[in-house]
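G., the chain you wanted modeled:
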Amino acid sequence: MNKFKGTGVALVTPFRKEGEVDFNALQKLVEFQIENGVNYLVVQGTTGESVTLTDEEKVSVLEYIIDITKNRVPIVLGVGGNNTLNVVQQIKRFNSFRIDAYLSVSPYYNKPSQAGIIAHYGQIAQASDKPIILYNVPGRTGSNMTAETTLTLANTYANIIAVKEASGNLEQIMEIITGKPNDFLVISGDDALTLPHIACGGDGVISVVANAFPKRFSSMVDYALKGDLEKAKPLHYELFPIIQQLFADGNPGGIKYVLKLISIGEDHVRLPLVNINDEVAKKLYELVAAIDDTLA
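Predicted structure as tokens:
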């Protein structure tokens, strides 16, 4: 599963002022990622505002990205939810698409037990013709997928090949790394924790900040994976304050504002999300302006 090591980018979905998908900006964003060395693209995750896309938009966005990517990098599709039957139906629908894996978030709102989470993913694994990356993000789902649950799934289903861990709990992450099968990947879901995550034995990141800084962030990840922390640390600390501000008033509002600053799309989001507040925007402008080769 080496194709999912390194830097994956949780792509935003650019919108025009009128609300429709901005395909020109999307093409610009995808080319920007590939040209600057990211390892794979993640389409329609949380950062892509997938929950506010219609079914027709999801298909058209995915087909467009598949077409313009032209197999240059792998594509991971976000397919998740809190209705297991519905997720299974979506998986079956997308099995015929030219994608490389699914990223599937642990069920939210229902707050299932660990046994329920295991049963949910078991159904998905049996329906999928492609590898599956688990996604644990307790801050959004309202429940944590424990290390024991992750390891049970990793050892039970051959096509469950990785976990995106966004619990923020390094002890839990280290517990997974300690007990996982050799070929199972542990991927960071927190940009700010990616360097320590890799230093503990992790395999990379699915990143938000890399939308705007793909070369810097993927270089940091590459150095860290090679064990060269002296080269990785300056890049980490250069982007660290930006990462903090990206999430200060909601994601993807922050990263869309930065993409606007560097002329890749506008910062329109769909309700119930709104644009970031003026104070956060000012801080982001100042931080981005201080980075070479972005703003004058």
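Strands lie at 6-10, 40-43, 75-78, 101-105, 132-136, 160-165, 185-188, 204-207.

Shout if anything looks off.
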